[in-house]
């Protein structure tokens, strides 16, 4: 396996675990890490109940496609892209897939 993919996978898994540890403080809501290493999909999901309301959703979803990190969904307050840059991932290897291709052109990150 390509060393870039292994490095990116390790960084993404570590960051998602950090988020999971930070938000995993509710006995009624499970925080699930979903890592599909074979197909390069990485998700952080919440599922459970809180005050009588169903809680379910993906907080973070990152794929590795063509040796780039594609942030499919980012439900964090600050945004994970800058954290990935701080971990040594070049901006031109991060795609903000949750933005349209036109919207991506207005960022410092990769278009595709």
UniProtKB/TrEMBL annotation:
Domain of life assignment: Bacteria
InterPro entries: XisI, XisI-like_sf
Residue ranges of the TM segments: none
Protein name, entry field: XisI protein
Annotated source species: Anabaena azotica FACHB-119
């Amino acid at each position: 396996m390509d060393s870039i993919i292994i490095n990116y996978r390790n960084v993404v898994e570590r960051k998602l675990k950090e988020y999971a540890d930070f938000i995993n403080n509710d006995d009624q809501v499970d925080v699930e890490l979903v890592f599909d290493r074979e197909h390069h999909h990485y998700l952080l999901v919440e599922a459970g109940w809180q005050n009588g309301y169903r809680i379910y959703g993906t907080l973070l979803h990152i794929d590795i496609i063509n040796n780039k990190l594609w942030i499919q969904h980012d439900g964090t307050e600050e945004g994970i892209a800058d954290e990935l840059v701080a971990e040594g991932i070049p901006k031109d290897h991060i795609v903000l897939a949750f933005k349209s291709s036109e919207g991506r052109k207005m960022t410092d990150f990769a278009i595709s």
